[in-house]
Amino acid sequence: MSRPFSVSAKKSLSQNFLIDEVILNAIVDQIHPQLDDHLIEIGPGTGALTQHLYARVQQLVLIELDDRLIMPLRQRFPNAQLHHHDVLTFDFETLFNDETQMNGEKSERQPLRIVGNLPYQISTPLLFKLLESAAPIQDLTFLLQKEVVDRLVATPSSGEYGRLTVMIQTYFHAQKLLDVGPEAFHPAPKVDSALVRLIPRTDRPVASIYPALIQVTQAAFNQRRKTLRNSLKSWQHLPLFSECAIDRQQRAENLSIEDYRRIANYLQSNNAFAPEQPLIPNR
Ligand code: SAM
Question: Which residue lies with its CA nearest to atom 6 of ligand 1?
Fold first, then answer.
């Protein structure tokens, strides 16, 4: 396999390029690309991971923000669909407008497999964006800051369990796959990394509870040391605790995903949330 091209890394774009072939192979094994996958790579960079994916699938979509990388990526991966775009404003739905595969044939509307060694500074907003996206998703496999992965897979009553955990685990099954040390990258980041897989839950809640879920998790975890009786006092005019069978002396981190879902359902059915919050469409 030919070597990726090189550029000087830009800190502002969180550029830490993967240079360890053992780790790259381990990541590709975990992604387990299949020929007919509809695969999207976020932030292909200098193509270290891309070259492995390009060789294995017929439909590869690349989304990269850095101007300097566009021409070399286009030359190196001529059959990939390259979008010079900020992924945070990218509309994943548009990928279904042109469904031509790399071999020129038309493909079916296939759910997306989205992968990437993500720019760490945008990983949380990107995860929230994907929560709200209407595009059908098969799975997400991301290399992230280990601390973020620990929060994604956390269990109740642990220090890592927080708002991000509840939001993500309401919609996805989260599994940590690999730990990756700083030496696998150039330049080496100051933090440890980990690979995580997120698979959409089949029992996702209806779209309409999303605003209530956003609001209750914000209220609860913004004051995570307080009891729920205090942190959720905006709703004290409602019999929320008795209706949802929640002990008001507990703290935010003690509630399960199901507990939060029940509270969000209750708030939504009582119209007790801010209606201007974004909605997650039904899938
Ligand atoms: N995939 C490459 C690798 O593993 O070596 C590069 C990973 S590097 C951590 C993150 C990549 O995301 C960079 O190529 C960077 O330019 C790109 N990037 C940063 N912010 C982005 C954004 N908002 N939208 C799309 N790409 C972005």
Answer: 45
